Amino acid sequence: MEIVILAVVIAVVLVGAVSGLVIGGRRKKQLPPAERPSATPTITTPPAEPRVGDEAETPRDESRRTIEEVDLPTAEAPEAPPAEAEPAPAAPAVEVPEPTEGRLVRLRARLARSQNALGKGLLTLLSREHLDEDTWEEIEDTLLTADVGVVPTQELVERLRERVRVLGTRTPQELRTLLREELLKLIATDAQRAVKTDNGLETPAVVMVVGVNGTGKTTTTGKLARVLVADGKSVVLGAADTFRAAAADQLQTWGERVGARTVRGPEGGDPASIAFDAVKEGIAEHADVVLIDTAGRLHTKAGLMDELGKVKRVVEKQAPLDEVLLVLDATTGQNGLVQARVFAEVVNITGIVLTKLDGTAKGGIVVAVQRELGVPVKLIGLGEGPDDLAPFDPEAFVDALIGD
């Protein structure tokens, strides 16, 4: 009986052990609940590429083209090689200025209006059958309007009165001869009018050009260089006008045209220093003439006029100053005489250059300015051309005024 009970107990223990092993093996084969895959898998759609404006939507299915249908880009042309640097501009060709002889031949046409106002006006009045006081007053008015000046006008009228009274009957040719003689007396044909360019020394002749703003002073200096080169002179230019913008460039351009060298300095530099260097260079190069262009100055500015005197003194430390030419605008009339007086007080004016003495000028200023300064008109500007500067010839001038 005990043996049966023991056998039953052993059997029960064996069954329980086997059952425990089976259940434990199954548990090890199963995944934990968190790691088990769900019955229906979830598929996540990849995000579409971001788009802008009207295209901000999911891309749509589009038809695809084959490679044969696609236009392939053509090969780009190779870039052109960089252009070569442009060569530096060649120096301007040296011009041959027009000879000074014969330039006044063009004066008759340029003085057409002046001729009507002065020369022909006087001939018309003197041709009247009866020369009463009213006629002589008209003659005086004609002379004054032409800027002859009060004193020269009175002298001319008195001489004309006397000669007409003695002459009696007056033919047109006799009147023209009479008027020509009296005008030549006023202009003074015995004056020395040649610009002094030969001082007989080893140093070059030094010519300083002065004048107020707007009279054409720098242009006149350049044209004078052409006149001198045409006469066979070697010239050095001094650009002492350092106050006006581009004045030195303008003068240098004039010089390059005829092969004359220009000595210049910085804009706003000391004019006296530049004038000094120009004369020094002229001596070193054995030049015939040194032309110095000074700054255009208002004659009412005492400080500027004093500086002009300084330029003169500094230049004379290198070489004597042979000429001081005052440039006046012939169209300014009596105002030009006021300028002339002030300049004559600062520097010793030796000659006058009258510019713009064409059809717009009245002509009589030639007489007035010579009387005022006691120095002759040496050069006249006839126009805007590079060779429209000529030595003043009194006889040619008077013939142009009164006509043939």
Automatic annotation (TrEMBL):
Name of this chain's protein: Signal recognition particle receptor FtsY
Function, in words: Involved in targeting and insertion of nascent membrane proteins into the cytoplasmic membrane. Acts as a receptor for the complex formed by the signal recognition particle (SRP) and the ribosome-nascent chain (RNC).
Native organism: Streptomyces koyangensis
A Pfam cross-reference name: SRP54_N
EC number: 3.6.5.4
Domain SRP54-type proteins GTP-binding: 376-389
Localization terms from the record: Cell membrane; Cytoplasm
Highest classification ranks of the organism: Bacteria, Bacillati, Actinomycetota, Actinomycetes, Kitasatosporales
InterPro entries, per database record: AAA+_ATPase, P-loop_NTPase, Signal_recog_particl_SRP54_hlx, SR_rcpt_FtsY, SRP/SRP_N, SRP54_GTPase_dom, SRP54_N_sf
Main location: membrane
Segments of skewed composition (Low complexity): 37-46, 73-99
Membrane topology of this protein: Peripheral membrane protein
Keyword Cell membrane appears in the UniProt entry: yes
Chain positions covered by the region annotation Disordered: 27-99
Superkingdom of this protein's organism: Bacteria
Homology family: Belongs to the GTP-binding SRP family. FtsY subfamily.
Catalytic activity as recorded in UniProt: GTP + H2O = GDP + phosphate + H(+)
Ligand binding (GTP): 211-218, 293-297, 355-358
Basic and acidic residues composition-biased segments: 51-68
